[in-house]
Design goal:
This protein folds into three domains: 2-87, Gyrase A, domain 2, CATH 3.30.1360; 121-399, 3-Layer(aba) Sandwich (Rossmann fold), CATH 3.40.50.620; 407-587, Isoleucyl-tRNA Synthetase, Domain 1, CATH 1.10.730. The protein is built from 22 helices and 14 strands. The chain has a five-stranded parallel beta sheet, sandwiched between helices. The chain has a four-stranded antiparallel beta sheet with strand order 1-2-4-3. It starts with a helix and ends in a 9-residue tail after the last helix. The protein has helices spanning 2-18, 45-51, 55-69, 89-99, 132-150, 166-178, 184-187, 191-215, 220-226, 228-241, 245-269, 279-296, 330-345, 359-371, 405-423, 431-451, 463-466, 474-495, 510-520, 522-531, 535-555, 564-587; strands spanning 30-31, 40-43, 73-79, 82-87, 117-120, 155-161, 275-278, 300-301, 307-310, 318-322, 349-355, 380-385, 388-389, 459-460. The longest helix has 25 residues, at 191-215. The chain has 596 residues and is of the alpha/beta class. It is globular and about 85 Å long.
Amino acid sequence: MIDITLQTSISNALNKLYGIEATAESIVLQKTKKEFSGDYTVVVFPYVKQARKSPEMVANEIGAEVKSSLPEISDFNVIKGFLNFTVDDSYWIKFADSIAVDPNIGLKNVNTGDAPVVIEYSSPNTNKPLHLGHIRNNLLGWSVSQLLTANGRNVKKVNLVNDRGIHICKSMLAWLRFGNGETPESSGMKGDHLVGKYYVEFDKHYKEEIKQLMAKGVDEEQAKREAPLMVEAQQMLKRWEDGDKEIRDLWEKMNGWVYAGFDETYKKMGVGFDKIYYESNTYLLGKELVNKGLELGVLFRKEDGSVWCDLTDAGLDQKLLLRKDGTSVYMTQDLGTALLRHNDFGADQLIYVVGNEQDYHFQVLKIILERLGFDWAKKVYHLSYGMVELPNGKMKSREGTVVDADDLIDEMEKTAEEMCRERGKNEDMSQEQLKELYHILALGALKYFILKVDPTKTMLFNPEESIDFNGNTGPFIQYTHARIRSIIRKAVTEKGVDLDRSCKTATLNEKEREVIKLLHEIQNTVEQAASSYSPAMIANYTYELAKAFNSFYQDTPILRESDTERMQFLVRLCNAVSLGIKNMMNILGIEVPERM
């Protein structure tokens, strides 16, 4: 790659001219700004003091030395301390020819001998269906897994289902009190939606009980603790942990409804897992670790019987690990799950894809694991992401003000259908093909809109904006891919182009060069995105590639080119772009259609 070669040449020039020892890796290359001539820019100010010359002189001397030793560099120019190099077209032409039919463009081969990176995402509660917030979590987790795999890592995708705890008991209790034996079959509702209905029902009646207690003079905090429904839910949780058969049977039945619903939604979203863990199986291991912590003296028991970890020396507070009645909290089961996961996979790294409201939780988890003596705790990484908000504010599950994942996907498919009908270019497709196209476009719009935003940022989701066929959207990129495939089909069938025949051109125009330069960046983009766990870098790179292709296509009459050799080159360049788009969109979990 010319950027690496150029770094080495600059390093050699510094040593030869000034005796400056700078490794090739330490040479920082930047893309030359569009207002200046050149492809790569290096800032020479860091070397001026040792060279004992002016920035302009240092830049000119390095430029001349590199140009004389590197035939790929056709020219250079200096603007103060900025040295701009121009890469000869022969290099770009040769590069384009080399990648024209490479199906793995931008991807690395996986070394399956490496210890795996284990990524946990989704982590739903079995008291409600998946909603828009879960969609961002799932899409981010899946895409980061794809991104690391594309960068040559061995990745294991896991899900921890929160299938126990007070929130689960709330749904169970509400169903017992108000459900009248309702089932998914009798109601016609998906099981996760039905259970979620009773989670909302619990909250409605619970608030009424609080209101009644406060009317009798009880303060609000006491009313929340002593409301009969909450007291009974706490008792149900204790009975569950004690193995009460009646409670366990109800729990298994309602969870079964939810799991069937989750599976359907995961399939719609196009995500999956290598292994699924359940908190009901891991919290006991967490309790064992708590006992170990008590023995080691890194945890302590209060007079009421509850167990805590004192983190004040780390600038934090005291963290509860077991309640006074012996029941566990989230931290307890996360301790157990972390150990189980490390033992199961011999993981090189444990990545948790969880919203930024849990930043404190994972900071504490890492510290407690370290204090329990696990040296691999330093490999725990919290991939913290911002919340998804709607134009009217935040979502609240207990109040039923969430955007349901299933409903959102269905609405997106309807919108995709409406927009395709307005465009009126799919008359030759069967109903089955159209239905598949609407689904691909809907998910492409949804996934791209969410993943193009930096994971650390809170985002505002706008369904209408996401599915626009213009601008920085999934459908725009999908349409670009379909357009390229159409060009290639016509070139092969009508013009006799042979994609597999290597072919070069004598000239490049500015827009052709821009497309090739973007393709040249694809591997570096994947590496940088993987190192920062940012699918957004992939999304926005792909948009720039699609945008550059459309600009090139508008100015270049590919199929009307009279020079058959040049047409061959241009069509192969189109093919490289389509392969690049396909691979990058695949990292985002997005399909690109052959026709639209």
